[in-house]
């Protein structure tokens, strides 16, 4: 490892260790907290040794027209800001990142916002934002000659890990909660050749089991406690800044599950500001499902000082997490950027997802909490009409087709959940209609949809 370029700093007690000294569970030996990758060199170097913002911006744009695999990756294109490998030749890439930033004109208009965008991380190779973190941490695993990698997952991390491990020729072990992940994600882990174990527990239980396993066997842990994951996951911040011509949006809204993603994006913006690439950072808000809202409770009860785990329950299975590992890091991002933290109901999630679908984008349920949260923030006057807002859509709509079909058939929500929202639901639901195989019958069906 390039330990002279980076080190790990404990988020809790501030202790610094080299990457090679990290324990298999990536917890600090002194206080048990998580580590963050730190590039001490940046602040120590002076003059010509410091990364030059103008030159970096030029270099990163130039790489977009390069034929090199590393340059075509939207993560490694920014490799000057993630010097975590000894040799970039060890990077395992599926050309992740470089995801589209879409405008959302219809939803924007309905909310009275001129500048509403979706950064669609579901457009990554395995269909979720996890690919950006996985290319980083799996490359570290390869550089360190691990044969096995593993993660506990609600589905997307496992899909990404299995794919990148397969590319690198490593074996992968997936622990998932039985019956609580979307089929598309389970199918991916199998297809990419992981050893997939469905445990009779929830995500938090899978994490507990895996944490013990990695202390007993030489298996590299790829959950987001692994700080190298966050180095990859910070790069969408660079892409967003680049898309805004380095003037950053006012507000970025992300879903909250295990809480690494909000933390990673906050780190990305903070580092860009420190290096003089951007003048300010956006407000970063984190939205959780009402049934899986430990960070919302923590912010409400103790301003993010303490967090009580909850028994998590939501149909947005990706974020069905009651004991999130990165809660301290996420709380700091909220505090530093002035972001909001709130929760949304199952009905709000389902309706927001259908609206994102109707924009021609689509996303998985967990991603839709961002729009559901934005609606509340707008209603409370916490987002101004002139604010530029980016929703981070974390997963592709095909990840969880069952949810979408159940919604449009009207079988997803209970009567109680539908109560008071009937007309809006009727406007959004688009069930498939059984029609005779004649032109006349199809044209007759169109009449109802003038
Ligand atoms: N959105 C999607 C689609 C996810 O899969 C996840 C997390 C999140 C949001 C939340 O991100 O955990 O960084 O706060 N999925 C995990 C997994 C944990 O195992 O795939 P977070």
Descriptive overview:
With 450 residues, the protein is an alpha/beta fold. 41% of the residues lie in helices and 14% in strands. The chain contains 19 helices and 13 strands. α5 packs parallel to α6 and α14 packs across α15 (365-379). The protein is globular and about 70 Å long. 50% of the residues are buried. Bound molecules: ligand F0G. Residues 128, 130, 153-157, 224, 255-261, 318-319, 364, 366-367, 394-395 line the site of ligand F0G.
Can I get a quick summary?
By secondary structure, the protein is of the alpha/beta class. It is built from 19 helices and 13 strands. The strands form 3 sheets. Strands 4-5-13-10-11-12 form a 6-stranded mixed beta sheet, sandwiched between helices.
Radius of gyration from the CA trace?
22 Å
Unreliable stretches covering 5 or more consecutive residues: none
How large a portion of the residues is in β-strands, by DSSP E? Answer: 5-15%
Mean pLDDT: 95
The N- and C-terminal alpha carbons lie at a distance of 62 Å
Bound ligand species: ligand F0G
Number of strands: 13
**What is the percent of helical residues?**
40-55%
Given the C-alpha coordinates, what overall shape results?
globular
With strands numbered from the N-terminus, the spatial order across the biggest sheet is 4-5-13-10-11-12
**How many helices in DSSP terms?**
19
Largest sheet: 6 strands, mixed
